[in-house]
Amino acid sequence: MATTADLKNGLCINFNHDIYTVVSFQHVKPGKGPAFVRTRLKSLTNGRVLENTFSAGHEIDITKIIRRPYQYLYKESDSYVFMQQETFEQITVPETHIENPDLYLDGQEVEIVIQEETGNILTVELPPFVIMEVTYTEPGIKGNTATNTLKPATVESGAEIRVPLFINQGDRIKIDTRDRSYVERAQK
After folding, report:
1. What CATH superfamily is the domain 129-185?
2. What is the pTM of this model?
3. Which of 28, 56, 143, 179 has a 20 to 30 A CA-CA distance from 7?
4. Which fold has domain 2-62?
């Protein structure tokens, strides 16, 4: 068994009958009282983020996970089909395990997180940033580019993203998949 001294970002633990990954942690030694570790944990099964405080030296149950590269092929009713890059084996994953399903394009590279002991698929993760073409947005009015105002834009996968006023239809943009935000205009 590991203790809170072994915590690090990205570590996966069994906690409250679920599997969580450590998003952030902070070891705190107050002037009075015992030391403790403040953590932010993200559930790999449902995506919820919770904050929890462990006393220093508390035992934690580490679980092993495997991250494998896959390629997104197509959607089939309420599930998605992926292909492993090395073996060309195809697997079907229910939509409940997919993060941001409207940001997937055919051929998109993803990472599938699998629990090593059971072989269960926990989640499918996109890369942190994707580049997509804007298929529809209202044209920007000349002179309105000095403010931080955002407008809705539809990208090639069908997702709606908020973009600055100077973005036009046909532009390629970089999107942060973690919070679905506009990052920058991509090079053509």
Report:
1. Nucleic acid-binding proteins (2.40.50.140)
2. 0.73
3. 179
4. SH3 type barrels. (2.30.30)
